[in-house]
Write a structure and sequence with these properties.
Elements: E1 2-8, E2 17-23, E3 30-40, H1 42-48, E4 65-72, E5 84-87, E6 90-92, H2 98-101, E7 113-114, E8 134-138, E9 143-144, H3 151-154, H4 160-170, E10 178-182, H5 186-197, E11 201-206, H6 212-218, E12 222-225, H7 229-233, E13 239-244, H8 252-256, E14 259-267, H9 279-284, E15 288-291, H10 297-309, E16 316-319, H11 324-332, E17 339-343, H12 345-348
Parallel strand pairs: 10-11, 10-13, 11-12, 13-14, 14-15, 16-17
Antiparallel strand pairs: 1-2, 3-4, 3-8, 3-17, 4-5, 5-9, 6-7
Helix pairs in contact: 4-5, 4-10
The protein binds NADP nicotinamide-adenine-dinucleotide phosphate (NAP) and zinc ion (2 copies).
Length: 351
């Protein structure tokens, strides 16, 4: 074991605070990474505050990491000391079930090991995430970061990027299609960029009128204020695909009404409370209501390479680790442009 430090929550209503812990030394297939940057995902907030239930404390959140390889096990073939590497939402899975064999480790029938808040088969405890100095991960779950990209701005691709890329590809978004993105936060702003790069006509739905110019700069052809009933009605029955990234309770049915015949609305945001939908809304135009979770490891690598090719990174606000509690509060107010990323140098400075 070796010593690590990070920030952890010790209960659902205490702020994140400095925390020391041990991680396993790298085994034969493991990569040890010194974390340089870690994005702040709304899932971190949901989880730290136990909004979905099942949070195990102490909770070190963080699943959007970019770092430098500091050690590798004897059987590691893909990484060497000094490489830049990424880690996202998963650090392990059974690798034997049908979903794992299909490269969809996020749907592992035996439960994938999430980067934090999962059972850790190596220690018997629970996994601890990226708001920390180092992480040790089996090389299968480590991502290669294409050269030439701003590393702080790449970090959010490891969750926000893949969570939007995967459904946009799964539902074959491309030229000639009208695609809606609901919410301009961490996921939403990546959704706009990636859908635009895929060639779609992108419409951004927001509750924040102040985000209109940014949405256009990021690639939206149209911006609709979702509180404007008339503007919403004008979009009725016109979308091939809508990606809903909203983190809080909202009227999903209002967006289903905007789908054309056979259109699909895919939910990636996971609000805490159930959201009622009348079957008639789906029946009326054979509409589809779907969900999607991050993406498999191979697809995450494909996404990183796609983003490098199209020069896509996240728009980030770099923060120091001691600003993370304030960042959570700002995220709740939709006041983030468009992903907070923790500069991990500031963590070291504090030890
Ligand atoms: P975020 O940065 O906080 O963005 C969420 C956006 O939703 C806000 O910026 C805001 O956009 C909009 N919004 C917030 N409250 C709203 C409300 N009451 N009504 C309508 N719109 C509202 O969060 P994120 O990191 O992108 O995550 C979004 C959600 O996705 C979270 O629930 C997270 O847990 C989930 N998630 C899921 C997956 C997955 O695999 N499925 C992966 C990562 C995250 P506007 O200001 O533009 O309205
Ligand atoms: Zn996330
Ligand atoms: Zn599996």
């Amino acid at each position: 074991m070796f010593h690590c430090y990070g920030y952890a929550a010790t209960s659902s209503d205490t702020p994140l605070a400095p925390f020391s812990f041990e991680r396993r030394n790298p085994g034969p297939k493991d990569v040890q990474i010194e974390i340089l940057y870690c994005g702040v995902c709304h899932s971190d907030l949901h989880r730290v505050r136990n909004e979905w239930g099942g949070t195990i404390y102490p909770c070190v959140p963080g699943h959007e990491m970019v770092g430098r390889v500091t050690a590798v096990g004897a059987k590691v073939t893909k990484y060497k000391v000094g490489d830049v590497a990424g880690v996202g939402v998963m650090v392990d899975s059974c690798r034997e079930c049908a979903n794992c064999r299909d490269g969809l480790e996020q749907f592992c029938d035996n439960g994938n090991t999430e980067t934090y808040n999962s059972y850790d088969k190596h220690t018997g405890g629970h996994t601890l995430g990226g708001y920390s100095s180092h992480i040790v991960v089996d090389e299968h779950f480590v991502l290669r970061i294409p050269e030439g990209l701003d590393l702080a701005a790449v970090a959010p691709l490891l969750c926000a990027g893949i969570t939007t890329y995967s459904p946009l590809r799964r539902w074959k978004v491309g030229p000639g299609q009208k695609v809606g993105i609901v919410g301009l936060g961490g996921l939403g702003h990546m959704g706009v960029k990636i859908a635009k790069a895929l060639g779609a006509h992108v419409v951004l739905f927001t509750t924040s009128s102040s985000k209109t110019e940014d949405a256009e700069r990021l690639g939206a052809a149209e911006v609709v204020l979702s509180t404007d009933g008339k503007a919403m009605a004008q979009q009725a029955n016109s979308f091939d695909f809508i990606l809903d990234t909203v983190s809080a309770r909202h009227d999903v049915a209002a967006y289903l009404e905007l789908l054309r015949r056979d259109g699909t609305l895919t939910q990636v945001g996971v609000p805490v409370e159930p959201q009622p939908i009348h079957a008639g809304t789906l029946v009326a135009k054979r509409r589809n209501y779907a969900g999607s979770a991050i993406g498999g490891i191979a697809e995450t690598q494909e996404m990183l390479d796609f983003c490098a090719k199209h020069n896509i990174v996240s728009d980030v606000e770099l923060i120091s680790i001691d600003q993370v509690n304030e960042a959570f509060e700002r995220m709740l107010r939709s006041d983030v442009k468009y992903r907070f990323v923790i500069d991990m140098k500031t963590l070291k400075a504090r030890q």
